[in-house]
C-alpha cells in the first residue's frame, strides 16, 4: 500500500514545487491561474514568461466572430517564434453563449481554435478578470468584442488594437513581428 501511495505523492509534491517555483519567478500581472474553456484544467500564465502575448476578448455571436480564423492563422504562423495568443470569451457586450459548451463549440469546432481559450469572464469594470484589470489600467477597457492587446515579452508595453483591426492586418502583423525581435 505504501508503494502505491508513494509515486502519486511524489508527483504531487513535484507539481506543487514547480508551481511555487514558477510563481516566485514571475512578478508581473501574468502570475495568475485561470481555468481553460470547458475544462477543469487551469493554466498559470507565468509559463509564458519572456514571450509576447496577444490577448483578445472574444464572443461567439458577434459580427467579428470570424476573426477566430485569422487569430488561429496567426497562432500557427508565430507560435514557434514565441507569440502566445490568449482568448477570453466575455458576455460584457451580450454576444456570448450562456453555456460554455456552446462557446467551446464555436471556438474549437467551428473555427478550429488551438490557442488557449479561457472560461467566460468579464473584461470590463470591477468584475473584470485580473488580466483585463491590468490591461484596462495600462490602456483602456475594450469598447467591443475582439479588442486585441499585444503585450511585450518584458510586460512593459501594451499596444491596443480595436475590433476593426483584423488579425492579418499590416498594422497588427508588423507589431507582432517587431515584438518577436
Descriptive key words:
two-stranded antiparallel sheet, Glutaredoxin, 5 helices, 36% helix, 181 residues, signal, 7 strands, Glutathione peroxidase, oxidoreductase, alpha/beta
Report a brief summary of the structure:
With 181 residues, the protein is of the alpha/beta class. It has a single domain (2-179), classed as Glutaredoxin (3-Layer(aba) Sandwich), CATH 3.40.30. The chain has helices spanning 2-25, 67-78, 100-110, 130-138, 170-179, and strands at residues 33-35, 42-44, 53-58, 84-89, 116-117, 148-151, 158-161.
Helices and strands in order:
Blueprint: H1 2-25, E1 33-35, E2 42-44, E3 53-58, H2 67-78, E4 84-89, H3 100-110, E5 116-117, H4 130-138, E6 148-151, E7 158-161, H5 170-179
Parallel strand pairs: 3-4, 4-5
Antiparallel strand pairs: 1-2, 3-6, 6-7
Amino acid at each position: 500500500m505504501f508503494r502505491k501511495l508513494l509515486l502519486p505523492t511524489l508527483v504531487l509534491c513535484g507539481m506543487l514545487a514547480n508551481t511555487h517555483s514558477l510563481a516566485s519567478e514571475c512578478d508581473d500581472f501574468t502570475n495568475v491561474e485561470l481555468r481553460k474553456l470547458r475544462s477543469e484544467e487551469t493554466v498559470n500564465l507565468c509559463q509564458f514568461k519572456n514571450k509576447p502575448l496577444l490577448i483578445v476578448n472574444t464572443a461567439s455571436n458577434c459580427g467579428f466572430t470570424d476573426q477566430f480564423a485569422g487569430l488561429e492563422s496567426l497562432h500557427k504562423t508565430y507560435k514557434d517564434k514565441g507569440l502566445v495568443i490568449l482568448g477570453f470569451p466575455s458576455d460584457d457586450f451580450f454576444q456570448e453563449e450562456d453555456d460554455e459548451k456552446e462557446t467551446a463549440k464555436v471556438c474549437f469546432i467551428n473555427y478550429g481554435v488551438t490557442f488557449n481559450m479561457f472560461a467566460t469572464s468579464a473584461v470590463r469594470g470591477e468584475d473584470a478578470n485580473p488580466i483585463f484589470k491590468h490591461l484596462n489600467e495600462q490602456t483602456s477597457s475594450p469598447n467591443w468584442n475582439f479588442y486585441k492587446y499585444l503585450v511585450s515579452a518584458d510586460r512593459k508595453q501594451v499596444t491596443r488594437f480595436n475590433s476593426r483591426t483584423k488579425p492579418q492586418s499590416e498594422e497588427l502583423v508588423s507589431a507582432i513581428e517587431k515584438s518577436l525581435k
